[in-house]
Amino acid sequence: MNDKSTQELENVLGSTHVRDFDTFCKENQKSMITDSDAFSTYVKDLLKHKEITQQNVFLKADIPERYGYKLLSGEKRTRQRDIILRICYAAEFSLAETQEVLKKYEMPPLYAKIPRDALLMIIFNERPGSIIEVNALLKKNGMKPLKTSGLQD
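Above: the chain's sequence. Below: its structure in token form.
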């Protein structure tokens, strides 16, 4: 991929005039988030490549199937990043793939300076077990477990 980092794009924008905006977009199209289906397409492609069914992901993520299908189709949106993290973990996505999914869903990526995010980054790298075991690790370290689609404190 010719994906440019945000920093690279910002550097180019620093010397770009408004009249050159169209040129900027054309030249950096592969690095820009423009596709409203980017999340859905990316996740479905990864699942296909990994030969994992959506149904299995939702079961492992402990997310109602109907809700999961609506999220992946774009019919529903969530503001709970934990739901997307559950899907990524259950789908056995790498940390890099998870960060990309969060970006495409227009959510903040996991950030190493936030303790809970740092632990989640380690968890995505080490894969300690099921979502239940992930939540146990979070609780053991005094952090909130990954929320489900239901209401939680």
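Residues 38-140 form a domain with the 434 Repressor (Amino-terminal Domain) fold (CATH 1.10.260).
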